[in-house]
Amino acid sequence: MNTATRAGPAPHLEPASQTGWRRTWFDIIYRHDTPISRNFDLLLVVAILASVLAVMLDSVASIHHGHARLLYRLEWAFTLLFTAEYVLRLLVVRRPLRYALSIWGVIDLLSILPTYLSLLLPGSQSLLVVRILRILRLFRILKLTRYVEESGVLARALWRSRRKIFVFISAVLTIVVIAGAVMYVIEGPANGFDNIPLSMYWAIITVATVGFGDIVPHTATGRVVTSVLVLIGYSIIAVPTGIYTAELINNLREAEDEARSHDVRGCGHCGLLGHAADAAHCRRCGASLPRAD
Amino acid sequence: MNTATRAGPAPHLEPASQTGWRRTWFDIIYRHDTPISRNFDLLLVVAILASVLAVMLDSVASIHHGHARLLYRLEWAFTLLFTAEYVLRLLVVRRPLRYALSIWGVIDLLSILPTYLSLLLPGSQSLLVVRILRILRLFRILKLTRYVEESGVLARALWRSRRKIFVFISAVLTIVVIAGAVMYVIEGPANGFDNIPLSMYWAIITVATVGFGDIVPHTATGRVVTSVLVLIGYSIIAVPTGIYTAELINNLREAEDEARSHDVRGCGHCGLLGHAADAAHCRRCGASLPRAD
Amino acid sequence: MNTATRAGPAPHLEPASQTGWRRTWFDIIYRHDTPISRNFDLLLVVAILASVLAVMLDSVASIHHGHARLLYRLEWAFTLLFTAEYVLRLLVVRRPLRYALSIWGVIDLLSILPTYLSLLLPGSQSLLVVRILRILRLFRILKLTRYVEESGVLARALWRSRRKIFVFISAVLTIVVIAGAVMYVIEGPANGFDNIPLSMYWAIITVATVGFGDIVPHTATGRVVTSVLVLIGYSIIAVPTGIYTAELINNLREAEDEARSHDVRGCGHCGLLGHAADAAHCRRCGASLPRAD
Amino acid sequence: MNTATRAGPAPHLEPASQTGWRRTWFDIIYRHDTPISRNFDLLLVVAILASVLAVMLDSVASIHHGHARLLYRLEWAFTLLFTAEYVLRLLVVRRPLRYALSIWGVIDLLSILPTYLSLLLPGSQSLLVVRILRILRLFRILKLTRYVEESGVLARALWRSRRKIFVFISAVLTIVVIAGAVMYVIEGPANGFDNIPLSMYWAIITVATVGFGDIVPHTATGRVVTSVLVLIGYSIIAVPTGIYTAELINNLREAEDEARSHDVRGCGHCGLLGHAADAAHCRRCGASLPRAD
């Protein structure tokens, strides 16, 4: 992967014009390899983190009442800043609608819309919480760093093991459905297992070894069933780890093999690369190979 | 494994007759590779999921009272549907008794029996919960998909490590028995450790890191013992994961080795084995190699 | 490992005499490869499990009061049986004192002593719990089965990784000591963190993700520290698993390599074994080797 | 790594003078390979452990009141001992300021300062807890043992996987922020989810499978969200383990490869590399090989 390409704008993004202020701002906003665009990114990261922190603190009653005016002003400052950025993003790109409908465009809109809507629908507290999705905007910037390769390795291994993990989750959910029904019959509403969905919630909390303790078995039979369920959960916790580790080791080995195949001797006759370390002849044309050292 | 074979009926299932409606229905029910039989499978999956959901919701008091009539009718609709399917399955197969006594036949019967029995034994609430086993019928259809291979890999690794996991569970249970007895002596009924079986239940919940918190140590000695128990549990949680991961990696490597051993050709001149799949010449002596296909 | 040897008595055990009833009983008790000695083992397993179960049930108040007489008689029956076995074991072995002072001899004695002592020291309830150690006697018999090899693999990997696990436990304990002291200062006795040892107990329960919930942070700072502690615990839970898995994979690979080295070609000239698969000459004397197929 | 070097003083530490009492004490304190310096180390370990234990016990109200005088005297004895050691360390080293500003120098100072400050600032209980950091001084001595290699392997694998673990922690924290906000909206202050930071604390405790149970969902929707959150946590617990295990296995393999590459000799006749350590002849052409040493 070429760093210059990666730090440039995504391939489907093109500037609205090749010259003038639009081109300048396009480079500031969408490119990430010039000093000014890096400063822009940094400013954005700080603004996003500060605005998420403001949303969090605003939900604390004592802070909300003590600093209502300050938080209100801060919120509008962040909203106006993000609105300006959003409008700019649309203005300088060649196909604004396409950007607006992309994942990043939708997240950008969700970051500013709730504040405006709160003017029309006063008291819509839960709407304001949507602003917390601003945190997702961080990943746009994170995507540009070298961490993207690491997350690529992790995600690829996760993607490769998706079928095995689906099978595993199916098995866990079947155990949960049956355990939930059994515990509902054994313990019943008298002991807090009010209905099967609640029992299933309890079974998930238990098999995943969380164990809140708000619902617990009280009968001897229920405790035996719980012990068995817990031992099953304790044993099969190994399965996703095993799946994922095996896949990750495989991934790393393949990457290594590929890396190795790039720096071995080429055949002087036909140019084939990737010969085994002990090969004395080209495996395609049979010509002699230079010594490997 | 041949896809056609896998999608066909299980080897011990044969149609009752080679022609007529029985043959037609046999193909619809037991085969899985024609459009009509696939639609039948899909319909069955939807009916099973809907009926399991109905059983779950029926256990919620408010829903049970608010929609008693609807749920009752739905239940009878599902039961009649599954009964018709069950009778058909028996009619079109050559050896109905053999099918009825197989695992799938028993599960099919358990899926419909409770509703009929509830007419004879009114108020048998816990009997109705047996219907939740319908969820197991999903696996008959899951078995036909490509997920079966994935679960095969997982199950084979689990099967191979069965002895090691048995040894591990024995060690855990011995720790649990001794820890339970020790905590019963240290804490005693005054602190909620009423008897040894209850203490053992607590020890299982603790060593598996669930920790409900309904029973907790109150004495200093008890807390020291608990800390040691928890650290043991925390350290040995690694064991089943290690066992399983090692087995899974082994499995994958064997599959790879086997795949590789199929396209290994020996050099006719010097006898060297283990050539790359695309090699046309021996890498040692440069002699021509036979084509790999 | 030779099965016959393994099923025979341990090497340091010798019969008191080579003929007569002592020799007969020595073979019954200490050997494990004749039908009669196998039946003896089986009887012992059943008696051990039944007696442990009796000790457990005796601790349940309702069962203790309802079946006091039955349990009392059962206990004496088991004690007399195990006493007879213990005396026999000492009588038929050549060096009885050596056996009595071995681990198994001590466990045998601990299994019967508490019942006799309860005659002298009435009301010594906690003494009777010592009888639960009878469960350890099962391992003497388990040792003779093929499971011993599996547990050998597990134990060897655990033994090899002992230093790494010691380092890990030291790191965890240091985190626990510091976190305990910090939480004691932040939360203090008012929030249940009465003193540093109690805070350390809480930190162990938390970092190992057990989380009983009997002691929980109530201040904002305390919750931040707890969150950090939990994330640390969540991340480093990987470490023992990683250590153990890597060791286990290594172990299996070595076992494989060793197995492979046994069935390769020997040099016809000097007899050296263990040549690489592609070797054409003996690596010691340089003589030609037969083709490997 | 050379044992003598490792057991000697750190490279930047030089004695203040090459002869006299300063040199003698420098060797006692900073070297670790003579009998007297080893005894000094042992004495230090015992004093550190005893003083940490005293700090812990002093925080227990009953012990504090019952043994106030003893603990007070012990504390001053340890403080004077550690002060003497600290002053000596500064006196015998060539560049005392450099030592005082190193990590170990700061920890040494933090170990004694609180006791002196408690004379000036009476009642500064929380200050005294700083003394618990004395436990870190143990690692200076642990560093000299063979355990350092083991912890080196563990730490290197942790360091190599730092980027992947950073990505993982970022993903977990994003899930926590969103889950916290969602649960705050769904459950609200009425069910104990007072504000978003508290909800996030709950989400961390839940996703890490600790589950204190002080805050639990009470609505049906909240329980569904919790179940999903728990299943996510249960699945991704595999990720750090996978990362770390893969890295550790890689590390061990590299160490092996490196070890192997040191005794590789090339055949002077045909150039083949990779001979076994005990090979005297090339395995391909049979020519004599140079001795491996």
From TrEMBL, chains A, B, C, D:
Highest taxon, organism lineage: Bacteria
Keywords for this protein: Ion channel, Ion transport, Membrane, Potassium, Potassium channel, Potassium transport, Transmembrane, Transmembrane helix, Transport, Voltage-gated channel
Main location: membrane
Listed transmembrane segments: 42-63, 70-92, 165-186, 198-217, 224-244
Residue stretches making up the Ion transport domain: 38-244
Presence of keyword Transmembrane helix: yes
Membrane topology listed for this record: Multi-pass membrane protein
Cellular localisation: Membrane
Name of this chain's protein: Ion transporter
Protein's organism: Luteimonas endophytica
